[in-house]
Amino acid sequence: MSSSTNSKPIDRQVFLPTTLFGLARDVLNGRHALSKAIPPVLWLFDGLLCILIIHKIPCTLSLAATTEHAKLWGFWVPSRTSS
């Protein structure tokens, strides 16, 4: 009958952060199965962020302001003919 004198109880406060850090390191370095999910997740997050920005920021340019801006930069602007 041999008792293991070298075994210590696992300290959860130390074990959990090191495990999570190791998991994050493995995922970011491509050594984990979740590594393949990073590009699609970033792409979806980027799309959602763009939708949120477009939805929340109003367009304040009028047609007249856009036309004047185009003329200022030297772009060709069709002239309106009055009937």
Rough outline: rod-shaped
Structural class: mainly alpha
N-to-C CA distance: 107 Å
> Which segments are poorly predicted (pLDDT under 50) over 5 or more consecutive residues?
none
Number of helices: 3
* Strand element count: 0
Task: Tell me the β content.
Answer: under 5%
Can you summarize the main beta sheet?
none
| N to C succession of SSEs | HHH
Could you characterize what this model shows?
With 83 residues, the chain is an all-alpha fold. It has one domain (12-72). It is 55% helix and 0% strand. The longest helix is centred in the middle third of the chain and has 19 residues, at 38-56. The model has no long low-confidence stretch (mean pLDDT 77).
Notable features of this structure?
3 helices; mainly alpha; about 80 residues
Structure described in brief:
The chain is an all-alpha fold and 83 residues long. It is 55% helix and 0% strand. The chain has helices at 12-28, 38-56, 63-72.
Give the arrangement of secondary structure elements.
Elements: H1 12-28, H2 38-56, H3 63-72
